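User: structure tokens for this one?
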Amino acid sequence: MDIELSGDCTVNRVEEIAGTLREALASGKPLVLHLGGVSQADLSFFQLLLALAASCRERGLALEVATGLPPEPEAKAAWVGYMACFHVDAGGECR
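Assistant:
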């Protein structure tokens, strides 16, 4: 299932983004994130994405990032350690 996140992905929209991610998880399908349109991101956003990765591992769902973050949000992602383990295969293994 494709998930496209864009614009302001900060604490201002955390509940909306969390709802989108919960719906995607409930589908039981492999998840593909498209993050190229994210203009702003903060720790709350990265925490949601890490929680999504953990939930995918627990459920044995594949998760991949098809479109990465633009440069500014990507720099923040690296700073908070978000990129440590994000791609999860169908067996729940980080790659």
